[in-house]
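User: Good morning. I'm curious how zinc ion would be positioned relative to this chain. Could you predict the structure with it bound?
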Amino acid sequence: MKVSLDKLIRRETDKIDLSFFEKIDTISYCDKIYELASPVNIKGKIANTNKGLYLKVDVDFTILDHCARCLDQVEVPLEYSIEGFLVKEDNYDEDEFEDFDAFIIDDQEVDLIEIIGQTLEFNAPSAVTCSQECKGLCQGCGANLNIEGCSCNEHTNDEENIDPRFAKLKDLFKTD
Ligand SMILES: [Zn+2]
Ligand SMILES: [Zn+2]
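Assistant: Good morning! Here's the predicted structure, ligand included:
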């Protein structure tokens, strides 16, 4: 999803309107790979301002994550805005853009998917659950407690419920 900035840079136009709806399987950023469960919807514009090229878009799409309790796959719908200057690496001055968000661009074009990748981590929840009532996995045997029961709990409860005095008695009957 690359957009040429030629016309903006040559001042042939003041802004470019962006409207994309495209199916993309994954978005990767650094060592993270996000799987997508929906097309990516992008709407907004890139405009010439006296400080440079300014990108302002609304994005929405659904990523796949795993429930933090039971590890089942969960669809996570995301919807957020991305705003910031598009700056070539040579022109990037940290002080100048201290108070603004800026995205580094390589050349005369910007890759919107790359920018989504850079912003995804801050906009995706760090932990999701498949439902509020998710019972998670049994710590003892790993069973998914949403689907099946297991006898781990009964077992530990039995042990705990033994009166300590009887436990001592039980020891006496142990044969070596
Ligand atoms: Zn779950
Ligand atoms: Zn269990």
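The pocket of zinc ion (ligand 2) is lined by residues 138, 140-141, 143, 150, 152 (CB under 6 Å). The chain is about 20% helix and 40% strand.
Let me know if you'd like a different ligand tried.
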